[in-house]
Write a structure and sequence with these properties.
It is a single chain. The chain is an alpha/beta fold and 524 residues long. The protein is 35% helix and 13% strand. It contains 19 helices and 16 strands.
């Protein structure tokens, strides 16, 4: 018979005696304690009973060490990614802290909605729907907002009164590539689209340090002359410390952005000040290549920009223009977002902005409601500009993930003959909201990857957080001052599924954001 010592340990039974296990409410039929019967942990340690000798299962200790090693690495990677993706320091922070705007605020001066729902229209239908009325206006530049296309004489006048301004600083190889692109697609007509290259040399000795840039600029003179391009080069040599406080903390940490913004101020002031005949300027940088019809696009859309007070600029860039979101090369959109990256600035708008030009982050400043004032930009579905600037002041995670993947149109569109009547503010608004009303509203965003539809679709995202659904379609997910990239009236639209179909990304609180007469279908 077994004996028990003073601490309750059971001695081995004598030889031949049957082994009996005492049952207790604290132990299971297999003799294990509740602690040893716990559910398996996420690490895969299934808490087996102790083995002979009392040693713990080796898997538990191994997993703990793995977690201790991987957790700091994961946190570090997350911190770096947030820092890189955050991008532009103060400018980015100021934009992200703003509340999303409502449609009423975003299109205050641009939307005259019809009292009753209109049928859904494709871009082609939008064009044909207004073509009859537009035909009577062909050749009348004063009716550019209402539609039609300007006569060739008017286009020639636009070419003569539109400058091309290309900014450069320290990237000689980039500049060579960009100038080659400009020369290849320029109209090559005497006096048309005169080209200005503004070289930044604000730092002491910059002209010597970046002599290779000066060499590229000088060498292009012969190319320009052979291509019948009126060409001017100047250098911005005013020291950047001349009008800033060098002890300013923000300045010391974002000096590159201060130089860029100051360079823009200098070049635009000089261009419009010294050349009163220029009515507008196409702004480029030395990390851009142009589509074959890029200049035709900017010239043909100039009458819209001149005549429509609800327009801010015309850009050749689509932030979401990836191959997976391929669209119609001839389709244009109105957007609340200022795209930049190859855009037309009018003398009128410059006169409005010049007196209050910022010290830093000129592009994010352009996106602020105080500057935009409810006006729209025109953007293409397929970009007319490629950005290859992986190296530079704004290099970030977004370049590899998004910017480098944006495709540029390879075949030209006859922009001079295009009818832009569908871009009139009331026409575009009516057609846009009509398509959203008619779109199939999907209950779950993952349907964008797993389902198909015969027409437009819409999905919802949590207010202020478009990132999950943006990832599903490959769109950019950041905003400035409450305006998402490429959005119109608080809604992001991307080509989806081919054949002219759209996917609308709509905030869940759409009742507070969309116009009152826009009601979504019941989700399916």
């Amino acid at each position: 018979m077994a004996t028990t010592d003073i601490v309750g340990a059971t001695a081995p039974p004598s030889a031949g005696a049957p082994r009996r296990r005492r049952r207790s409410k604290n132990y299971g039929d297999d003799g294990t304690s509740p602690a040893s019967r716990r559910a398996p942990s996420f690490s895969g340690d299934r808490r087996r009973p102790p083995v002979a000798g009392g040693s713990a299962p080796p898997a538990a200790g191994a997993w703990r060490w793995v977690l201790r090693l991987l957790l700091p690495i994961a946190v570090a990677v997350l911190v770096v990614r947030i820092a890189v993706k955050g991008g532009r320091l103060l400018g980015y922070w100021r934009g992200k802290t703003a509340a999303p705007v409502t449609a009423a605020e975003a299109v205050a001066s641009a939307s005259t909605l019809p009292p009753s729902p209109a049928p859904a229209l494709s871009i082609d239908a939008m064009r044909s729907d207004v073509s009859d009325s537009a035909l009577s206006n062909v050749g009348d530049s004063s009716s550019a907002v209402g539609g039609g296309h300007p006569p060739l004489g008017r286009l020639a006048h636009i070419e003569a009164t539109t400058a091309v301004l290309l900014f450069t600083h320290s990237r000689a190889d980039y500049l060579t590539r960009s100038l080659s692109s400009v020369a290849a697609v320029h109209p090559h007509r005497a006096g048309a689209l005169p080209l200005f290259v503004s070289q930044d040399a604000q730092g002491e000795g910059d002209l010597d340090t970046y002599a290779n840039v000066t060499a590229v600029v000088t060498a292009f003179e012969a190319t320009a002359a052979a291509a019948n391009i009126t060409y001017t080069h100047w250098a911005h040599t005013s020291p950047y410390l001349a009008d800033v406080d060098p002890s300013d903390y923000w300045f010391l940490n974002v000096v590159a952005y201060r130089k860029i913004t100051r360079h823009y101020e200098y070049a635009l002031r000089r261009l419009f000040g010294e050349h009163p005949s220029f009515e507008r300027v196409i702004i480029l940088e030395d990390d851009m290549e142009l589509a074959p019809d890029a200049f035709d696009y900017w010239v043909a859309t100039a009458p819209l920009l001149d005549a429509d007070p609800t327009l801010y600029c015309v850009s050749g860039w689509n932030d979401n223009g990836k191959p997976s979101l391929g669209g119609d090369p001839a389709a244009l959109h109105r957007t609340d977002w200022f795209p930049g990256l190859g855009w037309t600035l009018t003398r009128r708008l410059y006169g409005e902005l010049a007196p209050k030009w910022p010290k830093l982050f000129w592009d994010d400043w352009m996106r602020h409601p105080d500057q935009r004032r409810g006006r729209h930009a025109i953007r293409p579905e397929v970009s007319r500009v490629a950005n290859f600037g992986e190296a530079g002041a704004s290099a970030s995670f977004d370049y590899k993930a998004h910017i480098s993947k944006v495709v540029t149109a390879t075949e030209g569109v006859a922009w001079a003959a295009a009818d832009f009547a569908y871009l009139a503010p009331d026409v575009y608004a009516a057609a846009f909201w009509a398509r959203l009303r008619a779109a199939t509203l999907w209950r779950y965003t993952n349907y964008l990857r797993s389902r198909t539809a015969d027409g437009d679709v819409a999905v919802r995202f949590p207010p202020g957080n478009i990132e999950p659904v943006a990832k599903r379609v490959g769109a950019m997910s950041d905003h400035r001052h409450g305006v998402w990239r490429t959005s119109y009236g608080g809604v992001v639209v991307v080509p989806w599924g081919g054949e002219g179909r759209w996917a609308f990304l709509v905030p869940r609180n759409w009742q507070e954001v969309l116009p009152p007469d826009v009601q979504l279908q019941e989700p399916t």
